[in-house]
């Protein structure tokens, strides 16, 4: 097992069986994002991108929550007094922060999983939606929450949610801010698996480990194909698939898979 120094106790990171487990560690505040946690999370995503010992990234939360969104009591407290920024400057700053967190997570070159032991709300929900897959404890729930504090939503929530559940359902979840239980979320495709709360962390790691120990390069190409296909014509997707198929077919992963098939054994990709 390898431990990654995040620079703060508010964010933990370890690599075990090719799973990079990133834990938001502010259980007393439901792992809310703030001036220390958010920059550390942005940096650890950058650190993990190119590590050869990482086959999958899983983000979770300590205690009984995933992430309750922004910690209003912290935000902005660490910055010295400065002249007020213009609207354009404020927009550019928030855009940059979003791109470096949920943007980077969405484009992470390997599979990503959000493991929800409990509540995912506001920007915390955005982080979960930015991941490729989501699993949850049976007591977890999801909540857009933005309307409850008079805000319109950030960190990509309004982009991710319609693509996952459809525009009309996404509008309902934003306008009404209805709490989705784990069973509800599973039923509309927001979750891939729901595990018993008592065994959730072990079950989630087993789930992630299966993905992490697959053909990492092929899985990265699959992710690229699928996400690019949302915003390009069929012809462009066919060309991208052809490129990635030829690259995969001439690589070590396909060679090992074929050899394992002939020898009637499980392939070992790493």
Protein traits:
2-enoyl-CoA Hydratase, Chain A, domain 1, 2 domains, globular, single chain, four-stranded mixed sheet, alpha/beta, seven-stranded mixed sheet, 270 residues, 10 helices
Note down, in words, how this protein is organized:
The chain is α/β, with parallel strands linked by helices and 270 residues long. It folds into two domains: 2-212, Alpha-Beta Complex (2-enoyl-CoA Hydratase, Chain A, domain 1), CATH 3.90.226.10; 216-262. It is built from ten helices and eleven strands. The strands form two sheets. The chain has a seven-stranded mixed β-sheet, with helices on both faces. The protein has a four-stranded mixed β-sheet with strand order 5-7-9-10. Strand 1 and strand 2 form a beta hairpin. Helix 1 crosses helix 2 (87-106), helix 3 packs across helix 4 and helix 8 (216-229) runs antiparallel to helix 9 (234-249). The longest helix has 20 residues, at 87-106.
């Amino acid at each position: 097992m390898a431990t990654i120094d995040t620079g703060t106790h508010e964010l933990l990171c370890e690599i075990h069986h090719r799973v990079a487990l990133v834990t938001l560690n502010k259980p007393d505040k439901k792992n809310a994002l703030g001036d220390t946690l958010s920059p550390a999370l942005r940096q650890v995503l950058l650190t993990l991108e190119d590590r050869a010992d990482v086959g999958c990234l899983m983000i979770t939360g300590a205690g009984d929550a995933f992430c309750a969104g922004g910690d209003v009591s912290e935000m902005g407290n660490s910055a010295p007094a400065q002249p007020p920024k213009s609207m354009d400057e404020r927009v550019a700053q928030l855009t940059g922060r979003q791109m470096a967190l949920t943007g980077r997570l969405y484009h992470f070159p390997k599979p990503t999983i959000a493991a929800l032991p409990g509540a995912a709300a506001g920007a915390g929900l955005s982080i979960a939606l930015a991941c490729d897959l989501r699993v949850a404890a049976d007591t977890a729930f999801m909540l857009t929450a933005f309307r409850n504090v008079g805000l319109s939503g950030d960190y990509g929530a309004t982009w991710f949610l319609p693509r996952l559940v459809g525009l009309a359902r996404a509008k309902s979840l934003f306008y009404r801010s209805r709490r989705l239980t784990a069973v509800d979320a599973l039923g509309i495709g927001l979750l891939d698996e729901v595990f018993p709360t008592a065994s959730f962390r072990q079950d989630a790691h087993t789930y992630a480990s299966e993905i992490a120990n697959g053909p990492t390069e092929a899985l990265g190409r699959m992710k690229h194909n699928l996400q690019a296909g949302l915003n390009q014509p069929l012809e462009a997707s066919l060309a991208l698939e052809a490129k990635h198929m030829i690259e995969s077919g001439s690589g070590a992963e396909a060679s090992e898979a074929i050899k394992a098939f002939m020898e009637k054994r499980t392939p070992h990709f790493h």
